[in-house]
Design a protein that fits this description.
The chain is mainly beta. The protein has two domains: 229 residues, no CATH class; 144 residues, Porin, CATH 2.40.160. The protein has four helices and 21 strands. Strands 1-5-4-8-9-3-2-10-11 form a nine-stranded mixed β-sheet. The longest helix is centred in the middle third of the chain and has 15 residues. The protein is elongated.
C-alpha cells in the first residue's frame, strides 16, 4: 500500500494526520514544521548540479555522494511519482497566479509527507497593455523533493563523521509547478547520465576522499554551449596545513625574579574550518639583569628550547573576550648563565587565559626529576 502522509498548511485543505509523537523534540530556532520537512543537513549536500531548462525553469540536484546520484539517474520516474501524488491535492493548489512552495519528503520509515505554502493570497499584481488589464504572476513555484538513501557500507561525510544513511535534495524552480510534466521527455535523464559520465572521468575524486570534495556542474538544455563541466569548488582554505615563522615576546616571574624573553622559531598550522591547531618549536632566551659593583647592568642569558601547542577557534562573538587559552608548553635549558636557574632545568606550562594574541600562561620550573620545583607566571604576546 502506498504510504502518504499529507500535512497541508494552507487553509481550507485536507484533514491533517498526526505528524509527530508526544516525544517530539526539535532544535532551538527551528520550527517543528521546518524540521519535519527539511530534515536534510545542508552541510552533507556536498555536490550540486544545476540543469537549466527553458524560460527560467531549472532543476537543482544536491547529493552527499556518488552512490546517491546513481540511485537518482531516472529522475523522470521520480518526478512522475511526485506529480501523481500532487494530483491528490490539485484543488488545494488551485490559483495559477499565486506562487507556491511544495515540500515533498520521504522519511526513514518510507512515509511521504507533503507541505504546501501558497504565497501572496492578499497581494495581486497586474500589467496594463494597450488599455487592457491582465493579472501577473511575479514569483516562481518551488518544488523541493528530499529524502534519504541508505548505503550498505558506511562512508565518511566530514572530518569527524562516518555514516551509512545520506540525504539528497532535488529542487525544481518553475513558472508553474504543473509545467514540470512537460519536461519529462527523457532529456532530464540524458543530463543525469552526462553528470554521471563526467563524475566517472573526474579522476581526482575517490569514495575515500568524498568528504574533501564539493563537486559542481551546470547544464543548459536549450544551449549546451553554456554547460560547465564538473569541477571541485571545495575551499582549500577550509582544510589546510602550512609552516610559518613563529615569534613572541614575554615577561615571566619565577621564584620572585622577573625576566623578559623573546622566542623565535617555526610553527606548523593545521586548520579545519574556523579552528587552527598550532605546533610551535622555538629558541627562547630568558634575560636576567644584575647590577655590578661599578653600578652597571650585566646581562645573564639563559636559553631554552621549547615546544608548545594551542588550538584556536575564530569567532566574531569570542575574539574580543577574555577566554580559556588551551595552551600547553614544555622546554629544556640548553644554555645557563648566572645562578638564576639550575643545570638540567625543565619547564612546562598549562592552559591559562587569553585576550586576542595576549596570553597569561602558568609555568612550572624544576630540575633533576622535580627537584627545586617552582611555580611561575608568564605574560606573553604572540606576534602574528
Amino acid at each position: 500500500m502506498k504510504k502518504i502522509l499529507l500535512v497541508c498548511l494552507a487553509s481550507g485543505m485536507v484533514t491533517v494526520l498526526p505528524a509527530q509523537s508526544e516525544g517530539w523534540t526539535y532544535y532551538q530556532g527551528i520550527t517543528k514544521s521546518d524540521q519535519l520537512f527539511n530534515p536534510v543537513n545542508t552541510n552533507w549536500l556536498r555536490h550540486r548540479f544545476i540543469i537549466d531548462l527553458e524560460k527560467g525553469n531549472r532543476v537543482d540536484i544536491q547529493v552527499a555522494n556518488k552512490i546517491q546520484l546513481l540511485r537518482l539517474l531516472n529522475i523522470d520516474s521520480i518526478f512522475l511519482k511526485v506529480i501523481a501524488d500532487l494530483k491528490l491535492l490539485k484543488d488545494s493548489l488551485a490559483g495559477e497566479l499565486f506562487s507556491k512552495r511544495i515540500d515533498y519528503t520521504t522519511d526513514m520509515a518510507g512515509y511521504v509527507k507533503i507541505r504546501t505554502r501558497i504565497y501572496d493570497r492578499t497581494v495581486s499584481h497586474y500589467v496594463i497593455q494597450k488599455g487592457e488589464v491582465a493579472a501577473l504572476k511575479v514569483e516562481q513555484d518551488t518544488l523541493v523533493i528530499s529524502g534519504f538513501i541508505k548505503l550498505e557500507k558506511a562512508e565518511r561525510i566530514s572530518l569527524r563523521g562516518i555514516y551509512n544513511t545520506f540525504p539528497y535534495r532535488i529542487t525544481a524552480l518553475l513558472n508553474n509547478y504543473e509545467q514540470l510534466e512537460n519536461y519529462l521527455n527523457g532529456n532530464l535523464n540524458i543530463m543525469m547520465e552526462q553528470i554521471r559520465s563526467e563524475w566517472n572521468s573526474y579522476s581526482k575524486w575517490t569514495p575515500e576522499k568524498n568528504w574533501k570534495y564539493n563537486l559542481y556542474g551546470y547544464y543548459n538544455t536549450a544551449d549546451p554551449g553554456k554547460n560547465r563541466r564538473i569541477k571541485n569548488t571545495w575551499n582549500r582554505n577550509q582544510y589546510h596545513s602550512s609552516f610559518a615563522p613563529y615569534v613572541h615576546i614575554a615577561v615571566q616571574g619565577i621564584n620572585g625574579r622577573y625576566s623578559p624573553s623573546v622566542a623565535t622559531g617555526m610553527e606548523y598550522i593545521k586548520s579545519y574550518g574556523n579552528t587552527e591547531n598550532h605546533f610551535q618549536l622555538y629558541w627562547e632566551p630568558y634575560f636576567y639583569f644584575e647590577k655590578t659593583n661599578t653600578g652597571k647592568n650585566k646581562l645573564f642569558r639563559n636559553d631554552f628550547v621549547s615546544f608548545q601547542h594551542t588550538s584556536t577557534t575564530f569567532s566574531d562573538n569570542e575574539k574580543n573576550k577574555v577566554r580559556f587559552s588551551g595552551l600547553f608548553s614544555a622546554g629544556y635549558l640548553i644554555h645557563r648563565s648566572g645562578d638564576y636557574l639550575e643545570k638540567n632545568t625543565f619547564k612546562f606550562g598549562v592552559p591559562g587565559v587569553q585576550f586576542r594574541f595576549l596570553f597569561l600562561h602558568p609555568e612550572f620550573v624544576f630540575n633533576n626529576l622535580f627537584k627545586n620545583f617552582h611555580p611561575g607566571l608568564k605574560l606573553m604576546l604572540y606576534l602574528d
